[in-house]
Amino acid sequence: MSCSVQVDSHSDERNRYRIPIELRSTGFFSARSKRGLGFLLDHIEVTLAVDMASTAGATSWLRGRVKAVPSGDCLVIMGSSKAEFPPEKTITLSSIVAPRLARRGGVDEPFAWDSREYLRKLCIGKDVTFKVDYTVPSIGREFGSVFLGDKNVGLLVVSEGWAKVREQGQQKGEASPFLAELQRLEEQAKQQGVGRWSKVPGASDASIRNLPPSAIGDPSNLDAMGLLAANKGRPMQGIVEQVRDGSTVRVYLLPDFQFVQVFVAGIQAPSMGRRTPVEMVVDTEVITNEPNGEASSEPRQPLTSAQRLVASAASSTEVAPDPFGREAKHFTEIRVLNRDVRIVLEGVDKFSNLIGSVYYPDGDSAKDLALELVENGLAKYVDWSANMMEEDAKRRLKSAELQVKKDRLKIWTNFVPPPSNSKVIHDQNFTGKVVEVVSGDCIIVADDSVPFGSPLAERRVNLSSIRCPKMGNPRRDEKPAPYAREVKEFLRTRLIGRQVNVSMEYSRKVGPVDGSLPTAGTTDSRIMDFGSVFLVSSSKVDADDTVSAPPSAGSQPEGINVAELVVGRGFGTVIRHRDFDERSSYYDGLLAAEARAISGKKGIHSAKDPPVMHITDLMMGSSKKAKDFLPFLQRSRRLPAVVDYVLSGHRFKLLIPKETCSIAFSFSGVRCAGREEPYSDEAIALMRRKIMQRDVEIEVETVDRTGTFLGSLWESKTNMAVPLLEAGLARLQTAFGTDRILDAHLLEQAEQSAKRQRLKIWENYVEGQEVAKGSTAESKQKEVLKINVTEVLGSGKFYVQTVEDQRVASIQQQLASLTLQEAPVIGAFNPRKGDIVLAQFTVDNSWNRAMIVNAPRGAVESPKDLFEVFYIDYGNQEEIPYSRLRPLDPSVSSGPGLAQLCSLAYIKVPSLEEDFGQEAAEYLSHCILDNSRELRAMIEEKDTSGGKVKGQGTGTVLYVTLVDVEASSSINAAMLQEGLARLERKKRWDTKERQQALDNLEEFQAKAKRERLKMWQYGDIQSDDEDSATPVRKAAGRR
Predict the structure, then answer these.
(1) Residue 437: strand, helix, or coil
(2) Model pTM score
(3) With 80 as the cut, is the pLDDT of residue 967 above it?
(4) What residue spans carry the region label Disordered (predicted)?
(5) Using CA atoms, how far apart are residues 378 and 413, in angstroms rounded to an integer?
(6) d(CA 394, CA 390)
(7) What is the pLDDT of residue 699?
(8) Do residues 547 and 581 touch, judged by C-beta distance below 8 A?
């Protein structure tokens, strides 16, 4: 054999191997050839031309790995290079002949299969060293010596009696260098009666396989459906004889030797191209059993499909394969060709092709060929055959394809993911207690890290990747779907008041009403946040609820996955996401739980009719109906109930299971601050933490004229009015006596305790005089400020700067002296919500102090990323790109903002969304934004319930009477006179001073009414009704 390195490739009649090589890996290589090629650059394509003329001289020793074993004396060896397609050689062991396997229509020679199996098990997949001893041009074969480690393979085969030794041929050099040793070992094997030399009677006949028609070239008689029916889902042992493409193999099924073609279930690899047959005679293939490979004139039976492994390439012309088709085929060949595999038949297609899963050994474990191909980007998932597989196997394939698409490997290199309306949420894990179960797939959790009473304390969490029956909406006449009440009650009894770990995973933009996807061009949509919730303690969870599948990604937090609990009970279904939609990190566990619920026919998967429960809602009826129901609620002294909703600090919606009704219930003799009054939200938050959706006991005393039942309420034997009074969030009303109020002495003690500590509404309490913070004017002289108005909002609110405040000029001077450089490098400056920064105002490009109100999730990715900022010294708010932000310079004061939020006292101005709200804002702007006017603000009340400033419209509010000094007129009165505002309603507990102020303004409103100006153009609008309406408050933390 002669070996030449050619930079160009030419077409000639010699066999060539086109070998992409590197200096460190040169396919078949020897020490001599490696040194000789040392001058070449990496990745030179060379052509290894093998001269087919017979040569007496031997080549150098080469190394490679055994890829296939066609027979008992033949090996297909591929180079050990790391090239994409290593070169291959077919080597027949020198000077030996093994028995021949059956060909088309024929039978095995005795011991042919045992011989092939010995060599296959000995060498397949192993590294060997070999050299070509000689070639025989007439049959186009190379004969050589092969070493497995330090053992000569030819000697091993002969010593075991699986081949006989050829005599030396006529031409010199056509023999193995180890011929003498081969002959000695042959004689030894004969004497020992091993292998084909067995002396056992009948051994020769017994070694001949009884082959079915499919194994000898006649697949037409194969009963594919019968084979499937007999072996469906049962692992079958097999040996892969040929790989047609990456996802199609031809296999001997043992022990019956059915020769079948199996399409790998669930996937499809790129095609190897269409083959166009070439006119050629195959019935008279030249074979030789003569010594030294001399040709025989006897015709040979045609090869079977299993034995045409190498010859097939020469007998047809290939049309170009699909991209990565050759890679997929090579990937499959080096893993399963001539290997022992397990085949699990999954189904048969309409053409009677067998569909199955292929598992090959890898050390002590078995690997799934389909999964390996998909994970390496060499096959795609296909539904038609995947539907024949088990759900777990389908999920693994689908998940693998999704990941490889994201990584854009191989066939997915140019993949462009479809648009998605979901977005991943990073690093938002928290712990807290469950406050409310909204529905089977939505709960509200009080975050332990956020202070009690904060609007951000309660967070709505939608359970990732599941969907439960909807609760409906009574206001729209929507009734609860079947099992909706059951799943809500199931979660209520297990979660309310319990500690949970929450892992936020993704957010999704949905339609405004039913959670559907927003349609193109619509802006009326909302953002829903989804996460996985884990119940830390399982004391209230049934034993059969704790079965949990392993998480699909990462490590599962401690506890029971609530979504899995719901789905496993048959109260919900798992959402089938689109490929690139975000999903639960524990999606596989959810699917497994759903499969268990379906097989167990639980809940919504049951064939039984769903339970029906009719609830009479007395809150929707008349007060007369509530009074008629009073005797039923007073029959038992104490009634069990469930707090369905907290309407205010002292008023609740209760479900009475025994009477199957819902009622409005209020503490008898205890009252909290009204809506929009200080501490109203804190009272509601306290009651939500204490009794929301808890099991309670009530005792009803009477019913008022609005249909609200009055009485006492206990949770765990505690009268829940007591903690409300102790916290200073409610008053005890004793004007009508305390005879009918249960536990009156406890309530009085609780109120006295709050007074002594001056808590909340008793902050300014003086013995003998009750003053709630912000509810009445101070007896001392009212404070008057000289102001400049900087921004006008809706509803009569506006921002001001105090003229005498020296900080205004100081900060303006600090900002003017700044020399700001280019925008910071992305990643070096990552503003977060609540940070104080410098922002460039878009109107005049001036730099001002600002607070980040909203920021993109995650790190900044582009200078065009948008941030919503609130200018703390002026009160205006806008959205600007990252390029207009800078860190707050140390030379600039980081003190509180100079803009103070104010509101016109004693009057109600319509919001911008209400009728005449826009006109009211424009008129107010015209009156107060003119810098030439001197304005004075008299502070009537101060409301601090808004807490810290978090953006426009938040923080402490000053209720003021605004006076134009030059015109000596009140802006408050002018708004009333123009019909752009109305007076606040008088209350019984108003101070004389407040009543006097309202009386003075009444004449201005009366004039607007008479002249039917603006909001009075259709007469009295009766807008005061809203003041007495029962407030329906959404839970804090909801979107």
Answers:
(1) strand
(2) 0.54
(3) no
(4) 1019-1039
(5) 11
(6) 6
(7) 92
(8) no
Distance CA 812, CA 801 (A): 13
Tell me the residue length of the chain.
Answer: 1039
Residue 904 and residue 984 in contact, taking contact as beta carbons nearer than 8 Å: no
Site of tokens 């309420």: 713
Asked if residues 889 and 849 have their Cβ atoms less than 8 Å apart, the reply is no
Largest Cα separation within the chain, whole Å, is 134
- Alpha-carbon dihedral sign for residues 826, 828, 834, 838: negative
User: Would residue 640 be called left, alpha or beta, if left means φ above 0 and alpha means ψ between -120 and 50 degrees?
Assistant: beta
> 444-458 pLDDT, tens per residue?
999 988 887 777 888
Give per-residue pLDDT as tens, 31-60: 334 333 333 323 333 333 333 333 334 468
Alpha-carbon torsion (13, 15, 18, 24), positive or negative: negative
The confidence score (pLDDT) of residue 168 equals 66
Residue 142 bridge partners (DSSP): 91, 135
**Residues sharing a CB contact under 8 Å with residue 235, sequence separation 6 or more, in sequence order:** 342, 343, 344, 359
Host H or E run for residue 814: helix 806-816
Per-residue model confidence (pLDDT) at position 1023: 45
User: Cβ contacts of residue 764 below 8 Å, gap of 6+?
Assistant: 758, 771, 772, 773
| Secondary structure (H, E, C), 310-329 | CHHHHCEEECCCCCCHHHHH
Tokens of 683: 């009272």
CA distances from 222 to 228, 243, 253, 355, 954 (A): 11, 20, 12, 14, 79
What separation in angstroms does the CA of 520 have from each of 421, 424, 507, 515, 525?
A: 11, 21, 18, 15, 11
Q: Which two tokens stand for residue 709?
A: 């039942």
Backbone phi, then psi, for 903, in 5-degree steps? -145, 145
Structure tokens at 910: 């319509």
Distance separating alpha carbons of residues 856 and 869, to the nearest angstrom: 12
Q: Residue 950's closest CA among 847, 837, 852, 848?
A: 852
AA identity, residue 547: V
Q: How far apart are the first and last CA of the chain?
A: 80
Position 173 scores a pLDDT of 64
State the amino acid at position 466 in one-letter form: I
Contacts of 28 (CB under 8 A, 6+ apart): 48, 62, 63, 64, 77, 79, 80, 87, 89
Q: Give the pLDDT confidence of 214-266 residue by residue, as tens digits.
A: 777 777 778 888 888 888 888 999 999 999 999 999 999 988 888 899 999 99
**Range with lowest mean pLDDT among 145-159, 319-333, 611-625, 943-957:** 943-957
In this structure, are residues 691 and 649 in contact, taking their beta carbons and an 8 Å threshold? no
Alpha-carbon distance 45 to 63, whole Å?
20
Sign of torsion over alpha carbons 969, 975, 976, 982:
negative
DSSP codes, 568-586: HTTS-EE----TTS---TT
Q: Residue 520 corresponds to which amino acid?
A: A
Instruction: Give the integer Cα–Cα distance in Å for 424 and 140.
Output: 62
| Residue 582 pLDDT | 85
Please give the DSSP secondary-structure letter assigned to residue 556. Answer: P
Higher pLDDT, 586 or 274: 586
User: What average pLDDT does the segment 95-101 reach?
Assistant: 92
Give the whole-angstrom CA distance, residue 627 versus residue 709: 9
Which residue carries 């039917």 as its tokens?
A: 1012
> What's residue 706's pLDDT?
83
> 341: closest CA among 360, 366, 357?
360
Token couple for 684: 């509601």
Residue pair 249/232 in contact by the 8 Å Cβ criterion: no
Tokens coding 790? 């900087």
> What average pLDDT does range 350-364 have in this prediction?
89
Q: Which long-range contacts (CB under 8 A, 24 or more apart) does 526-530 make?
A: 526/1039, 527/1039, 528/462, 528/1039, 529/425, 529/459, 529/460, 529/461, 529/462, 529/504, 529/1039, 530/461, 530/462, 530/463, 530/464, 530/465, 530/504, 530/505, 530/506, 530/582, 530/584
Q: List pLDDT tens digits, range 541-551.
A: 555 555 444 44
Q: In one letter, which amino acid is 485? A: R
